[in-house]
Amino acid sequence: MTTFDSATSATLLRGTPVVPGVVAGPVVHVRDEISPEAIERFGDGGFADADAAMEAYDGAAAAVADDFTARAAAVSDGAAAVLTASAGLARDKGLRAAVVKGLGEGGGPVAAVRAAVDQFATVFASMGGLMAERVTDLRDIERRLIAHLVGEPQPGVPVPDEPSVVVASDLAPSDTSGLDPERVLALVTERGGATSHTAIIARQLGIPCVAGTSGVTDLDEGAFVVVDGEAGTVEVGADPDEAARRVAASLERRAALAAWTGPAATADGVPVKLLANVIDGPSAELAAKEPVTGVGLFRTEMCFLDRTEEPSVEEQADIYAAVLAPFAGRHHVVVRTLDAGSDKPIAFAAHEDEENPALGVRGLRLSIDNPGLMDRQLDAIALAAERTGAEAWVMAPMVATVDEAAGFAALVRDRGLRAGVMVEVPSAALLADRMLEVVDFLSIGTNDLTQYAMAADRMATDLAYLTDPWQPAVLQLISMTALAGAAADKPVGVCGEAAADPLLATALIGMGITSLSMAARAVRPVGAQLSEVTQDVCRAAADAALSAADPMAGRAAVREVLGH
Ligand code: PEP
Ligand code: MG
Asked: Checking CA distances to 226, which of 85, 200, 376, 514 falls within 20 to 30 Å?
């Protein structure tokens, strides 16, 4: 939505608030495509012969591959595996041979690269599964090769000369891996919402972010804008003095948030459990340095994104021990069993040829046909807990029935560990009281709970208005799960992206949620926000959010309750 303020002659664009903070600076656009004029100017390149054209191709392929390798070295998680695989694909001999063949047909190296990539993309797509997923990476390589050949800047996120507001349609994980938080004041996207890749990365880096901002990609390059990540606004043509005042006030507030060191409690002294979401040993070590009281979600599948074979129990135990060790003797770690399938394809736990993988054999359902997979993982977790002396709780993803929960809990308890299940399927929220009769704790995965409650694919950027955890229907499911927890006197946490939103965190605590688990970077802003409000204010925030007509009205109502 766009509004024009005639008193100040400023234009206000509105989107979904993702990471709070007010910043002001020039717009720099992310380039999705290479200028068609540059490609036309280049034509067939005017090379003396095919050898000279291939020399240009080899130079471009080496530069693209080196760039991927350098970016892989700068990231620590699953993104590194994706980038390394892309470097290999850019250097692929088969792709090169297809380019040689294309050159023989005339038209120059750009046409040859396009034809070769088209051919590979068709083959990958027809193979389905993981290979089909790689078509996006192939297209990214194609754009990069052509940019090199025609002498245009690389597509993707630019490295701005001065601190700037980066504007994009939406960002892919490979785009965001090279982001320099020193030069990026804010991220603003035209599409996507609170759970998009851009939102997740912005939260991890602590960069103010507004998603789903209609009209933002039409702004002029270099236009001066004020971005408010809490209100979800982008203001064009704002008074510079007023903007400087707002930015200074925000910086002061963000410094106060960063200085918050816990322990987490509301203003009237009621303790709150803030936990970290981690994916491997290094992220667990980083999280252990933050004011957290444990790990609320260890996504074990993220350790195996690049593995074709299931690791042995011994190897798995080593991987899990690296996550448990930093918390041993201090806090518990909630380990989630493999959540393979749908948006997290794992080669050794794949269920091929599903019409609708998000509703297919994923998460806990994989162990129906393959019980050994679950047994071996639980053995490895128990071994890691024994070796490190850490307190491991274990939960299963994608649980839909009480029967599934009971069967899983028995397997976990057989190994002397505490058992819980995730609430991601609405049926689990509706039956939370009965689930709690058979498990020790519940953890609400708001990303999937929102997707399934709203029947809206969490990856579909055009459905961001539905995949918003502030949707009143989603909040009702969370609230009824929290009430069941209070009645059973058992912990009910939230570990989806919703927990990282300081505003929503107040409402979740007001509903009776007992722990919030989030990216380590998000812990301080959430802790600081909770320290400013009493339990009564949290309850009022919960009522306001639950009774709002829609997500934006909910945000506005909670901001009013908090006096923001
Ligand atoms: C969730 O669904 O909210 C969740 C925490 O699990 P994931 O995002 O890994 O699917
Ligand atoms: Mg999930």
From this structure: 200
- The active-site residue, picked from 148, 209, 332, 495, is 495
Q: What is the pLDDT of residue 94?
A: 92
Cα(540) to centroid(ligand 1), Å? 27
Contact 497, 488 (CB under 8 A): no
CA neighbours within 13 Å on the CB side: how many for 144? 26
Domain ranges of the chain: 2-32+157-257, 36-150, 266-562
Q: Give the CATH superfamily of 2-32+157-257.
A: Phosphohistidine domain (3.50.30.10)
Q: Active-site residue 197, yes or no?
A: yes
Task: Say whether 485 sits in a helix, a strand or coil.
Answer: helix
Ligand 1 is surrounded, with C-beta below 6 A, by: 297, 299, 339, 424, 445-448, 495-496
Nearest to 474 by CA among 490, 499, 452: 452
Element at 22 (helix H, strand E): strand 22-29
How far is the centre of ligand 1, averaged over its atoms, from the C-alpha of 305 (Å)?
A: 16
In ligand 1, the atom with minimum distance to the C-alpha of 448 is 2
Indicate which atom in ligand 1 lies nearest the CA of residue 301.
Answer: 9
Give the distance (Å) from ligand 2 centre to CA of residue 495. 9
CA distance 507 to 533: 11
Nearest CA to ligand 1 atom 3: 445
332 catalytic? Reply is no
pTM across the whole model: 0.78
Domain 266-562: CATH superfamily, name plus number: Phosphoenolpyruvate-binding domains (3.20.20.60)
Query: What is the 446 CA–ligand 1 centroid distance (Å)?
Result: 7
Report, as an integer, the average pLDDT of 128-157.
81
Distance CA 197, CA 173 (A): 6
Question: 3-class DSSP state for residue 558?
Answer: helix
Q: Mind giving me the DSSP string for 189-257?
A: ESS--TTSHHHHHHHHHT--EEES-TTGGGSPTT-EEEEETTTTEEEES--HHHHHHHHHHHHHHHHHH
State which of 47-61, 193-207, 296-310 shows the largest mean pLDDT. 47-61
pLDDT of residue 75: 58
